[in-house]
Structures are given as C-alpha cells and as structure tokens.
Amino acid sequence: MAEEHTVEAKLLPKTVDTQTPLTGAAKLRRLLAEKDKIVVCPGVYDGFTARLALKAGFECLYMTGAGTTMSRLGMADLGLATLNDMRDNAGMIASLDRSIPVIADADTGYGGPLQVGRTVTQYLTAGIAALHLEDQVLTKRCGHLSHKQLVPEETYLARIRAAVNARAQSPTDDILIIARTDALASLGFETAIARLKKALAVGADVAFLEGLTCRSEAERACRELAPSPVLLNMAHGGVTPTWSVEEARRMGFRVVIFPSLALNQVYKSVSSAFETLRGEGVVSYDREGGGDPSLREIFGVCGLEDAIRFDRDAGGDMYSDGV
Question: What is the model's pLDDT at position 145?
C-alpha cells in the first residue's frame, strides 16, 4: 500500500510555486511598465549570437527575420522564410534562457487570418515573448529596401485582429503583439500613423513605424501614439539615421532593436579572416596574448559547464575525467 501511495503521489500535479519565474511575455510587460525605461534588444539570428548576447547581459533579445533568412537559407531577406523556419529558430533562441524575453519577427503572419492565428499560436507555444506583424504583401521584402508593396488597411487590421483573437484563445499563455507598418515610405506619415492607431485600437500592444528617416517624425510618432509603447528599428545600413539608446529614449521610444548588429560584425570580421586564409594560407592565432579565445572558452559560452553539471547531477560519468 505504501508503494502504491508513493506512485500515486508522483503522478499528482506539481505544487504551485509562488516564486515561479515570470514568463518572457510577463517579464517584457513588466519592463514596458517601468516609467522612462527603454528596452534594448540586440539582433540575434542563431544559437551562437544569442548566447553571446546573453553573456553580455541583455535583458531582452530580438530575433531578426533578415538574419534568420540569411543564416538558415543563405538567401536575401525577400520573404522566402516560412513560418516553420522562423518559429523553429525563434523557439530555439527562446529556449536558451527562459528568463530572458525574445521578440521575434513574424513577417506578414504567412497568410490570411487563419494562418496568422496559427502563427501566433505556434510562436506562443514556442515561448516567444512578442512578435511583430506588418502590412506588406506576402511577397514582402526587408523594410529598408525600396518599392515595398502594401496590403489594404482592412487586410492589415484583419491580421492584427486574428493575432489578438488567437492569443485570447490561450487562457494561460501570453504573447505581446507588435503592429508594424511600412506605409511611411509610400503613403506618408499621416497614413502610417493612422494605420498604427487602428491596430492599437483592435488590440495590438506596441506600435512599430518602419523606415523612419528623420528625428522630427520619430518624436512626433511617439507623441501621437502615446501612451502605447513605440518600437524603434535601429537597422544600421538602412534608411534610419543612427541614434543612440539614450537619444531614442529621449525621443519617446520604449523599445529599440538592433537587427543588423551581429550581421554587420560577422560580415566584416569573418570576411576578413577568410580573405586572409585564402590569400596567405594561414590565420594567426593569438593564444599567448589573450586576444583570441580557446575552443573551450567558446564552448563555455554555449553552456559547456552547465551540460557537464547536468550529467554529473543525474549520476552520469561521461565527463568525470574532464573535457
């Protein structure tokens, strides 16, 4: 009887812990609720860049769609990545540290209202804290390229409504919905702001005006969309001027993403290393001077010690002699 009781006890639901850590979405909502705070999100596109951002101590990450498309498909950001590509990558990044919110690109939602609802549900299940949906056509392109084509306003709002409705169907999970418009370049400031106001009215949490080109419009957008949080896309090499985090905060932005940060650095440094190897047949390694990391140090960024500890605590001896 005692053994049966023990087995039954193991099958009972876990006791609710009042100190359970916040979900990514709950933590992001708390960050946005802090007055005068701006949430800074470095752009990451794979497990390694995400690990580096976590090591640097950022409190929120941004999964870039352009980076995902280039790293997973080897293609330019021209709407080629599918829901599966984006969800799988975002979910993997979010799984590395559940205490750190991940904001992820969700393009157009990958179809009509039903497809948008499925996208939101799958991102939510994957543990993504927030996603952004835009008003480009399905055959979209990077927001900092020219000649973007937009869907009618009602089609855009249907995407946002579908996202809000899909979220409402989950009684326990949460995800923030960021409404993005690319209308500024072709339809002008007034139309773009009108689209965002309507998106917020139907349930979006954050506004995202893509392709800003001057400070006056940036400041005006934050004023007109207040009190809703506004996101700034600081895509270096794009059409938006370079502003610091503090400048963005003073303009009124509550979130700033740097989607091309890792991409730019990898392009420059790795291209240089490849050119050196191709031209000189050798790549110098500064082991003694401490300028270059060891492989163990690199593995350490990606959880080497945690993996060894997990194996040991479970009774394994795979790494008992070290690595």
Answer: 65
Integer-rounded Cα Rg, in Å, for the chain is 22
pLDDT computed for residue 146 by the predictor? 66
DSSP per residue, 227-242 = TS-EEEE--TTSSSPP
Q: Cα(133)–Cα(130) distance, rounded to whole angstroms?
A: 10
User: How many beta carbons lie within 10 A of that of residue 99, not counting itself?
Assistant: 11
> Token pair of 218, please?
């940036």
Tokens (6 digits) for 300: 């350490």
The residues of the chain scoring below 70 in pLDDT are: 1-19, 141, 143-146, 286-290
Segments of the chain assigned E as strands: 39-44, 61-63, 102-105, 130-133, 176-181, 206-209, 230-233, 255-258
For the whole model, what pTM was predicted?
0.90
Specify the pLDDT at position 1: 47
Q: Is 189 exposed, middle or buried (0-12, 13-18, 19+ CB in 10 A)?
A: middle
Q: Which of 89, 69, 52, 57 is nearest to 269 (CA)?
A: 52
Q: Which of 206, 207, 212 is nearest to 234 (CA)?
A: 212
